[in-house]
């Protein structure tokens, strides 16, 4: 099994700077679901509709059709896309914790927030205008930024789970 554990060493008995790939992915998926729920609630309260953020994500693949015809396929593709991106960034965040030996809870939370805000800035102003212009113009920047912050906090908090920190594997297994 693959591991993000550097050199097979534990840096701190209480808070290991090690993660299994599976747990890193799960942490990112959980963070992405918290972010999605936030975006869907903001969208509902603002009168746009509960599923609009998911439809906007699906517009990456379907273009404007995703906004005109809400189907199960569009919702499923939007949710899966968001979870896959979250899984990828969960791996990135866990990798950063290992590479920089970030062990303490407060440091992990700050790194989680900082990385998530960095992801938001790049996404909002560089990536989305190119790959999903509808989402770039229809998501409220403050809500999108806060959603990314929630992703960072929740993913980093998941990585503080003592059960998770015991789930370390070496590539020999």
Automatic annotation (TrEMBL):
Domain of life: Bacteria
Keywords: Membrane, Transmembrane, Transmembrane helix
TM stretches of this protein: 20-42, 74-97, 109-127, 139-160
Protein name, as recorded: Uncharacterized protein
Organism of derivation: Sulfobacillus benefaciens
């Amino acid at each position: 099994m693959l591991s993000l554990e550097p050199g097979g060493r534990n840096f701190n008995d209480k808070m290991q700077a090690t993660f299994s790939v599976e747990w890193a992915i799960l942490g990112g998926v959980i963070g992405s679901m918290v972010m999605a729920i936030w975006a869907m609630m903001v969208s509902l309260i603002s009168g746009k509709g509960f599923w609009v953020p998911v439809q906007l994500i699906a517009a990456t693949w379907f273009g404007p059709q995703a906004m005109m015809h809400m189907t199960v396929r569009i919702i499923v593709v939007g949710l899966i896309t968001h979870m896959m991106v979250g899984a990828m960034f969960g791996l990135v965040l866990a990798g950063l914790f290992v590479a920089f030996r970030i062990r303490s809870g407060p440091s992990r939370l700050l790194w989680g927030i900082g990385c998530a805000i960095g992801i938001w800035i790049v996404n909002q102003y560089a990536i989305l205008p190119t790959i999903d212009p509808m989402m770039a113009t229809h998501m409220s920047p403050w809500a999108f930024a806060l959603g990314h912050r929630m992703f960072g906090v929740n993913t980093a908090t998941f990585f503080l789970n003592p059960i998770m920190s015991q789930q370390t594997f070496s590539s020999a297994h």
